[in-house]
Design a protein that fits this description.
Layout (H helix, E strand, L loop, with lengths): L4 H12 L5 H8 L3 H13 L19 E9 L4 H11 L5 E6 L6 E7 L2 H10 L7 E8 L13
Helix pairs in contact: 2-3
């Protein structure tokens, strides 16, 4: 599906506030409510819009301690990668996991309450995964920019 200018504007508006009504969106884009509804459905059906989410205030839910953990596997074989990735998917503390190039094999984004909770996570969950050779943790001091919007 090729996105036109209106599709791109619509996606940008929804990324900033997905709770807007089709009427509100129609006024901003000078289209009918029906046209907006049909465009949104087309974007959803083509998996351009994957889902709608709530972004929780991490401080208010006591998950504001952000850690980036670099993980190196003992060996980069298919079995080791498969086992690691399967186990990482089970860990609720890990919000994102990227298979990367460079000195480490993975970068994990982890939210916990505090250092004590992170230590417990490392000792009982993460390092219990087979085939991890080493880890390096980096703790976020201040959030300078954090956005979910990919501007079109």
């Amino acid at each position: 599906m090729i996105l036109d200018k209106i599709d791109k504007k619509l996606i940008n508006l929804l990324q900033n506030n997905s709770k807007q009504t089709t009427k509100q969106l129609s006024l901003q884009l000078n289209l009918s409510v029906t046209a907006i509804y049909e465009r949104i459905k087309k974007l959803e059906n083509n998996k351009i819009i994957e889902k709608y989410v709530v972004i929780a205030n991490k401080k208010k839910i006591e998950k504001s301690f952000l850690v980036f953990c670099h993980v190196k596997l003992v060996q980069h074989s298919k079995e080791y990668v498969t086992v690691f990735e399967r186990e990482i998917l089970k860990l609720e503390e890990v919000s994102e996991c990227f298979h990367v190039s460079g000195d480490y094999d993975y970068i994990l984004k982890i939210y916990v309450k505090n250092m004590e909770e992170y230590r417990q996570f490392m000792v009982t969950k993460l390092t219990a995964i087979k085939y991890i050779g080493s880890t390096q943790s980096t703790f976020a001091i201040e959030e300078v920019k954090n956005t979910t919007v990919i501007n079109l």
